[in-house]
Write a structure and sequence with these properties.
This protein is mainly β and 547 residues long. It is 3% helix and 38% strand.
Length: 547
């Protein structure tokens, strides 16, 4: 099953300009797949890109041994583990984008269906899990001596158990942790004076016996408040005052979109060039109501085949709906570098849960949200040779590829005599913009400041491009690396910056001055990937620290 990739922001005005420039034709216009590893030893239930171009990947610990040993005879000893009290295999790895190598990491307690976010200093904070890990916090700090970096665990550091919760980085660098199974509340990391705060909305959206409000979709909005979507409903929350400021209309169709119905969602890119920034939420796919019950009885219902968009800051917000080429549940939506959205593969039938998905969809879809609605805004990409079912993940990398790994719809790793065997492979998808034929118009960043400030503070970089067209087709984008699990990329965020000036300094070489984000509500503090995009073709990313 291929997840849904959201790749593009609006560049309809660029198409008309570029069309007259006789761009090279692209024979691989549907993208390309590459197998990176036949097995990395674990299934990628959770993934997070770090600012040293390493990717943290981890599964759960309560199913028995993985297919990757811990180094140097190390074993995990956990008397509370439900399967193996002594386990000498790894359930987490650190993957190196540059070398394509990986090494095992040590997790002590169960991280099943947990959440995470990256602090402003680049430390990954992972929250919760299952069994003896459900109130634990784990951190991973990238370090210069990479061979010795590993997880650090802080037992019982959460006030409430967090299983299927969602996280969002806030303007002050704190992390808000919302919901989870039978948790109708939220808390903060670091913990705040008011502890756990009850939220009626989470109880109201809980379908008895089915839930359909787990892993709620969270987005920090430019006004500093939090958008929360759960089941079919959404609210605007002032988390400092614990006050619901607004409830938005229900999503059309009354079909739930959160786990286990498991649609996917993104905040469309924010553009600092707009006089008024109007945030817009997009929700795609999922399983119709009662699909979980039907799948448990062997009846696998076709997934939802629509996407809905909501402009949350207009006076009378309402959802707009579009049909998508292929229905899917458990898809991953990823913001791409020319502001489009990519929806990656997953099943067409059934719902999330053990053995409850069927009919893998192996073709990603690219959606162009800025194209005129009267045009067909979806493009179907090349198929992956590997079906990706439950418990796989996908993230954007600094070189513009999408990293995809994992698939395990079974309680244990199961490789034989099943319809969809556990898949521990890792592959990458190269969107059409990475074609070598676009080399002449692909920018290459030569140098850039390492830090970027708020308030429109100026930021300098230089870049080269062989066939520079015009400043009208040039943009600078920052992208927050997301924590991906269960069809939701937490903290995924893309911002288009204002260009203050472009100067020709040498043949095919240019200085570029841009204004930093106007405020932390637009781009919370932390590390971002920075890209120069020229005529829809992005450079490789550079890491920049904001705040």
């Amino acid at each position: 099953m291929i997840k849904f990739l959201l790749f593009s922001l609006s560049f309809s005005h660029v198409f008309s300009i570029v069309a007259s420039q006789a761009l090279p034709s692209y024979s691989g216009r549907n993208g390309e797949w590459q197998l990176l590893h036949e097995s990395v030893g674990i299934s990628a239930m959770h993934m997070q890109l770090l600012h040293n171009n390493k990717v943290i990947i981890f599964d759960r610990t309560d199913f028995g041994p993985s297919n990757l040993s811990l180094p140097n005879g190390i074993c995990r000893v956990d008397s509370s583990d439900t399967m193996l009290q002594t386990d000498c295999t790894a359930h987490s790895i650190l993957y190196d984008i540059v070398t394509n190598g990986f090494r095992p990491l040590m997790i002590q307690t169960d991280t099943w269906r947990s959440s995470g976010a990256v602090l402003p200093n680049g430390t990954l904070v992972q929250t919760g899990g299952y069994n003896d890990g459900d109130r634990n916090i784990r951190s991973f700090m990238p370090c210069s001596d990479d061979e010795y970096c590993n997880w650090i665990e802080f037992p019982q550091s959460l006030i409430q158990r967090r299983w299927y919760a969602s996280n969002q980085v806030l303007p002050d660098g704190r992390i808000i942790i919302v919901g989870g199974r039978r948790q109708f509340n939220y808390e903060f990391y670091p913990s705040s004076w008011n502890g756990v705060i009850f939220l009626d909305f989470l109880m109201e959206t809980n379908d008895q016996g089915l839930e359909n409000n787990l892993y709620p979709f969270l987005y920090l909005l430019p006004d500093g408040n939090l958008f929360i979507f759960a089941n079919t409903r959404s609210i605007l929350l002032d988390y400092n005052q614990n006050m619901v400021l607004k409830e938005f209309p229900k999503i059309p169709g009354d079909d739930p979109r959160n786990y286990p119905s498991s649609g996917s969602s993104v905040l469309l890119p924010l553009d600092e060039n707009d006089a008024i920034i109007e945030p817009e939420i997009m929700v795609c796919g999922g399983a119709p109501r009662d699909s979980f019950i039907q799948a448990m009885q062997g009846n696998f219902i076709r997934a939802i085949s629509t996407c809905e968009r909501l402009k949350v800051s207009v006076p009378n917000p309402s959802w707009t709906m579009e049909d998508i080429p292929m229905a899917r549940v458990m898809g991953d939506m990823i913001l791409l570098l020319f502001h489009n959205v990519n929806n990656f593969c997953r099943p067409e039938l059934g719902t999330a849960g053990w053995e409850l998905g069927r009919g893998p969809v192996t073709r990603p879809i690219i959606y162009r949200p800025s194209d005129d609605v009267s045009n067909w805004r979806f493009s179907v990409m090349s198929p992956s040779p590997r079906p990706r079912m439950h418990h796989s993940s996908a993230i954007l990398l600094t070189d513009g590829r999408i990293l995809v790994s994992g698939s395990n719809p079974h309680v244990y790793y199961n490789f034989t005599n099943v319809e969809y065997p556990t898949d521990l492979s890792m592959e990458s998808f190269s969107p059409p913009y990475l074609s070598p034929e676009y080399g002449p118009i692909r920018p290459r960043i030569l140098s850039a400041d390492e830090k970027m400030g708020y308030g429109g503070k100026l930021f300098w970089l230089s870049f080269q491009v062989q066939a520079y067209l015009t400043a009208n087709v040039l943009s600078v984008t920052i992208v927050a690396p997301s924590f991906a699990t269960h069809s939701f990329s937490m903290n995924q965020r893309m911002v288009l910056l204002k260009i203050a000036g472009v100067t020709d300094i040498a043949p095919s070489t240019y200085n570029l001055v841009v204004a930093g984000p106007s405020r932390a509500e637009i781009a919370p503090p932390g590390y971002y990937m920075l890209f120069v995009v020229h005529a829809h073709v992005p450079s490789y990313g550079r890491w920049v620290k904001i705040g």
